[in-house]
Amino acid sequence: MSMNETPSSERKHIAFFGCRNAGKSSLLNAVTGQNLAIVSDILGTTTDPVYKSMELLPAGPVVVIDTPGLDDVGELGEKRIEKAKGVLRKTDLAIMVIDSEKGMLEQDREILLSVNERKIPAIVVYNKSDISSEDVPSSMDGVTVMKVSALTGEGIKELKDTIAKLLNEDSNEKVLVGDLVAENDLVVLVVPIDKAAPKGRLILPQQQTIRDLLDHGAVPIVCRDSELQGVIDKYSSDIKLVITDSQAFKKVSAIVPENIPLTSFSILFSRYKGELGYQLDGIRAVENLKDGDNVLIAEGCTHHRQCGDIGTEKIPAMLAKKACVNIDFTQGTEYPDDLSKYKVIIHCGGCMLNEKEMKARIEIAKNNDVAITNYGMTIAYLTGVLERSMKPLLDKEGQ
Fold first, then answer.
1. pLDDT score recorded for residue 1
2. Cα–chain center distance at 377
3. Is residue 301 predicted with pLDDT exceeding 60?
4. Are 167 and 120 in contact, with CB atoms under 8 Å apart?
5. Which residue blocks in the chain are alpha helix, DSSP H?
6. Distance (Å, rounded) from C-alpha 320 to C-alpha 315?
7. pLDDT at 141
8. Which end of the chain has the lower number of beta carbons within 10 A, N or C?
9. What does each C-alpha distance from 304 to 275, 332, 349 come to in angstroms?
10. 310 by DSSP, 3-state: which?
11. Gap between the Cα atoms of 61 and 52, Å rounded
12. Contact predicate 189/224, CB 8 Å
């Protein structure tokens, strides 16, 4: 991803679902005006979800997703279907592609039911209108229905306009940190440079926080933890907020005076993409961990694990001081539907996940009656600064 591109986690995700040879890939290509997906008459050409970040006018920056056929067959086909259904976790808008000649099949109805249950905006699209004269309803269970032809282009402009309309209706202008500060406020961002820090760049949460502060007229000052004392000595009376990498909480909290609000990038992302209160409640499960309890540490990205990694090394080492627990790890798209064996899930801030997927993961934890919390909150609790690190956010939320 270019440094100037909108991160995929901040783009609306548009997923195309349907049975084999309904024309999902052809329709995706017609809507985007690009040959993004392979088109073939052979059943099951799309074997895995295919993701493409792009600008889709008039919708703006989006991720379009082509999925395997919902009627695939055999053992491998079942796995492909599960992959397709898994895309629902991150879908902001579902495009249900129906073969006009065959009509809506059982598999289409099943996925549409799931879409409705998850309250995902959707459009039912009857493709191949150039070879079918069948009439279709204008809506179906409150979902917009359209006739198009990916081959001739009939109805494609109208479909794109409808996509933009639904995405705009579903948009919510959330703020990462800008509502915690005012114009011209000095905000110090503490960015440790250790073995896990990517060479030559800042990680995504740091980039996005800086941008959000600039968007709201605040003045970010970025320093390492080793230079923080000097920054505090020079600007102490003017600093309105300090935001630190969670792993430096202990050192940073000892340096920053109590009268200056302090929080972390990870905790900010819990509010931005997750459910702040519910994840804070999850700390009780961390507090009550006992020997033999099972813990899942989940990370949304797939970076190469390095020495000193926060998820696989630092948090487990801190937990070991409380209890001898069994820890499983997942990363990227891996996230089990059955979480019942775990006492608590400790999840990263989710900067690489879109809001839909992060909230879907929290919902799965709720459905399994399992507590879920956040990297930053966990480290803040284990280093004795949880109350202080949460105060700026809870004050804003009126909690």
1. 44
2. 18
3. yes
4. no
5. 24-32, 74-86, 106-117, 156-170, 204-215, 228-235, 249-255, 265-273, 276-281, 283-287, 315-320, 355-367, 375-382, 386-397
6. 9
7. 74
8. N
9. 28, 11, 17
10. helix
11. 11
12. no
CATH of 178-269, one of 1.25.10.10, 2.20.25.110, 3.40.1190.20, 3.40.50.11420: 3.40.50.11420
Q: Rounded to whole angstroms, how far apart are CA atoms 289 and 243?
A: 28
The architecture of the domain spanning 8-170 is 3-Layer(aba) Sandwich (3.40)
Considering the entire predicted model, what is its pTM? Answer: 0.85
User: 399 falls in which pLDDT band (50, 70, 90)?
Assistant: low
Q: What average pLDDT score do residues 272-286 get? A: 94
DSSP bridge partners of 99: 127
- Note the CATH number of domain 273-382: 3.40.50.11410
The structure tokens listed for 378 are 């966990």
Token pair listed for 176? 């990462």
pLDDT at site 58: 79
pLDDT tier for residue 194 given thresholds of 50, 70 and 90:
low
* Residue bearing tokens 């801190």: 318
- CA gyration radius, the chain: 23
